[in-house]
Amino acid sequence: MADVKPRIKLDKKEAKKGEIVEVKALVSHIMETGQRKDSKGEVIPRKILNKFACTVNGKEVFSADFEPAISANPYIQFKFKAAESGPVVLTWTDDDGSKIVGEEKITVT
Amino acid sequence: MNYDTTLRPNRRQALSLGAAGIGAMVLGTSIVPAYAKNDAEELIKKFTGGKPATEGKVNLDLPEIAENGNTVPIGISVESPMTEQSHVTDLLVVADGNPRGGVAKFHFSPASGVADVSTRIRLAATQNVTAVAKMNDGTFYTTSKQVKVTIGGCGG
Amino acid sequence: MITRRELVQIGAAACAIVAGSGLGPFGRVIAQQRIDEAELLRFEPLGNVTLLHVADIHAQLVPLYYREPPLNLGVGEFRGVLPHVSSKEFMARFGIRPGSPAAYALTSEDFEGLAKVYGRLGGLDRLATVVKAVRAERGADKVLFLDGGDTWQGSFVSNRTKGQDVVDCFKLLKPDAMTGHWEFTYGETRVLELIKALGSPFLALNVRDKEWQEPVFDAYKLFEKGGVKVAVLGQAYPYTPIANPSWMFPKWSFGIREEDVRANVTKARGQGAQLVVLLSHNGFDVDRKLASRVPGIDVILTSHTHDALPEVVKVGKTILVASGSHGKFVSRLDLEVRGGEVHGFRYKLIPLFSDAIRPDPEMRAAVAQSRAPFAAELAREVGRTESLLYRRDNFSGTFDDVICAALLEERDAEIVLSPGTRWGASVLPHSPITVEDIHNMTAITYPQVYRTTMTGERLNEILEDVADNAFNPDPYYQQGGDMVRSGGLGFTVDVGKPIGNRISDMTLLKSGNSIEPKKEYVVAGWASVNEGVEGPPVWEVVEKYVARKKVIRVAPNTAVKVVGA
Q1: In total, how many domains does chain C have?
Q2: CB proximity list for C2: less than 8 A, separation 6 or greater
Q3: Which of A72, C146, C153, C484 sits a CA distance of 20 to 30 A from A10?
Q4: C530 near B CB under 8 A
Q5: Are the Cβ atoms of B152 and C529 closer than 8 angstroms?
Q6: Interchain CB contact of A76 with B (< 8 Å)
Q7: Of C207, C242, C293, which to mutate for an interface test with B (greatest number of B Cβ within 10 Å)?
Q8: How confident is the model over B138-151, as a mean pLDDT?
């Protein structure tokens, strides 16, 4: 999973303290539901990204639990309140325990 | 009832306007039949602990008719000042026409600034999507919207 | 000998399709005894802003015959409510005399007879005359000319030139803004090319890119007209990727997006807009619902459903205008705007009687030039018709019957499914059927006629689905078209029932037997939204059929029974 590079967009790179910052992110993932059979009749095992979290300067600002009803190549948009400058880290957790991590930076003035 | 419409083309893709989706109907995989009843209602009960959820405060942005059941854009926002005193803590989204009711759960805090989230979801058929918000004072707010999954027909 | 032009000029009661605040009921103004250009253009100006609106021209650059629908059912709370009023009821509602120009332009009553008296309507050269005249009279600084879309697609030449003919002509009219629907079926790249060629803003607040959910087009544009800041918001047809092939514009997502309408109205007001106009391709009932839910829209210029109304419809403070289709009309709405509010308005639906209005020479030349390379083919006679040929009606049209018969015979099918689109110029009885006529009825950018098998169950599902798109009582779930046409298949439709319960008595006409759910039937059809559909283009199949029959006579269609209307 380490080679999966999420795409992240912040609506601003610099924000005043207290300003709302919008984050959009896209990540490639099959989001296999575990409810389908292949051509041999074998159940295709479930494999989804089941957790997502965003920290800003180490503090969590938003998180989510995903079910198989989330579309393949998950898209997520959320917001946070600018408090301090630092890395904006997005982490997706796979059913197999592996993680996909992406990072941006926010400067708070 | 299939859930992952990536392999079972939705009716619109297969048909269109009374047309033939010949190619799309030939599939390499078959579908696991739904083994459980949709549990949307139970998930809401579990989330609220049986407390009533008041209609309102939650805005659910969904298309009236889905363009593609595999990937339906959804936006949810909750009216709240998002202060330490008054904020949304959790937001549950369920769909009552998929084989399983669960869609996602979102978690907010005052650091979120606003409770506003968007993603894209799978809808296997025409159904209701419900969002329930939990506030830090233990109250719940909810709203629902029907999304139609259609074959398509052409107008003017 | 009296020419038709003279007849029109001296002819009976005037069209005088005038209405609006302060002008009183429609009937009172039908005192004029002439319909000449001056009369058609006569308008006592009001206020500080004039809106001119056209929509749903469907690439019809020259004057044509187009019969309005004999039936235009409304469902739920819109049953019998404008614009769901037709024929005699429509005439009574607006005080229109039988045999009058208004009766001819606005209804299906005695269409064949009146067509001979009043001739064709429309033509971009006539439209240009009116647009220029109004701009000159009011001053261009007071006038906004707005195009509601379904403009670039729908004819032989537009298909051949991928919309270039329409854009080349339309840019002479310098529209202030437009939005779209069928335009999108030229594909993303071509749409953007044509927008550039047109040189006018293309507004569509409800189109977003699928990847990041971000706007593709400008939501609105601010204009300064008559000292008033005017915001024009654009709304493309919300169900373009459902009713039309989404693979032709795979990156774009549509929808009604009421929240986005609301947000943009607020934003435009915040930027000082004193008049907010929604240039919409939603369809009338969707716009009516939108007006009742989103405050702050002063005017909605409706389109898509092809309604032509001689008066505006008001929903709260919002004025709804319905300007008809195929270039038959142009709407003029004068507004008095003061302090960010509309204090008065005057409206006229101007019918473009081609025998009464002079063609604008510049536009006439441009239209002729765009048609010249195809002139011989356009005029080529394929056969003749003894019947009036049309497509616009809720459940069947005579030319739909021709298409269905052609597909049944030429493709050796048991059942035909043909889309209930509302476009297609009418062909008068006892006339030749030309290549242009056939293409006016069938010109589409995905014309392949498929041939496949479907079970009875599947056929039922399709009919139910399309019926719900047409007759869902909630307008936001309607797609604004007519019922799918069927050949070789009879059924009963109860429009008042919910989905899954509207269709009954499905019968295979050739045997008279009921359709069996599990049985497979050979089905031909066209306008599939699927990618990679194979088959000959529909116009080729229809042309073959007409050529083989030589003379077309269409018997009344009794295969569809309508109840609950």
Answers
A1: 3
A2: none
A3: A72
A4: yes
A5: yes
A6: yes
A7: C242
A8: 93
The yes-or-no verdict on residue A80 having pLDDT over 80 is: yes
pLDDT recorded at residue C33? 41
Q: Say if B111 is an interface residue toward chain A (CB within 8 Å).
A: yes
**Partner-chain residue, chosen from C480, C528, C533, that has the shortest CB–CB distance to B156:** C480
Q: What does pTM read for this prediction?
A: 0.92
Same domain, residue pair C75 and C146: no
- Average pLDDT for residues A47-51, to the nearest whole number? 98
Closest CA to B16 of B154, B152, B156: B152
Q: Give mean pLDDT, residues A19-36.
A: 96
Residue-wise pLDDT tens digits, B26-85: 223 334 444 568 999 999 999 999 999 999 999 999 999 999 999 999 999 999 999 999
For residue C483, give the 3-state DSSP assignment. coil
* CATH for C419: 3.90.780.10
d(CA C416, CA C397): 14
Is C375 domain-assigned?
no
Residue in C492, C525, C520 with CA at minimum distance from that of residue C404: C525
Q: Which domains does chain B have, with CATH numbers?
A: 40-149 (2.60.40.2470)
pLDDT digits (tens, 9 = 90+) for C404-413: 999 999 999 9
Distance CA C563, CA C112 (A): 28
Which chains would you list as touching C if contact means 3+ CB atom pairs under 8 Å? A, B
CA distance C51 to C57: 17
Chain A touched by C213 (CB under 8 Å): yes
Cβ-based contacts of C304 with chain B (< 8 Å):
155-156
Could you write out the three-class secondary structure of A28-65?
A: CCCCECCCEECCCCCEECCECEEEEEEEECCEEEEEEE
Question: Are C230 and C200 spatial neighbours (Cβ–Cβ below 8 Å)?
Answer: no
C86 and C171 both lie in a single domain: no
Extract the residue ranges of chain C whose pLDDT is less than 70: 1-34
Q: Is C209 on the interface with A (CB under 8 A)?
A: no
Pick from C319, C337, C370: which residue ends a domain?
Answer: C370
For residue A2, the distance in angstroms to the closest alpha carbon of chain B comes to 23
Using an 8 Å CB-CB cutoff, list chain A residues near C212. Answer: 9, 24, 26, 75
Asked whether residue C128 falls in the same domain as residue C271, the answer is yes
Query: Where residue A2 falls among pLDDT bands split at 50, 70, 90?
Result: low
Q: Is residue C403 part of a domain?
A: yes
For residue C343, the domain's CATH number is: 3.60.21.10
Q: Can you identify the CATH homologous superfamily of domain A7-33+42-108?
A: Immunoglobulins (2.60.40.10)
**Lowest mean pLDDT segment, chosen from A95-104, B2-11, B129-138, C491-500:** B2-11
Token pair belonging to A93: 């957790």
Domain assignments of chain A as residue spans, ordered by start: 7-33+42-108
ipTM of the complex model: 0.95
> B20 in contact with A at a CB cutoff of 8 Å?
no
In this structure, are C208 and C349 located in the same domain? yes
Q: What is the pLDDT of residue C34?
A: 57
The pairing of beta strand C513-514 with beta strand C329-338: unpaired
Look at residue A108 and tell me whether its pLDDT is greater than 80.
yes
Beta-ladder partners of C337: C342
* Closest B-chain CA to C257: B63
Chains near B, with 3+ CB pairs < 8 A? A, C
Three-state secondary-structure class, residue B19: coil
- Residue of chain A minimizing CA distance to B111: A61
Residue numbers in B near C246 (CB within 8 A): 67-68
pLDDT at C288: 98
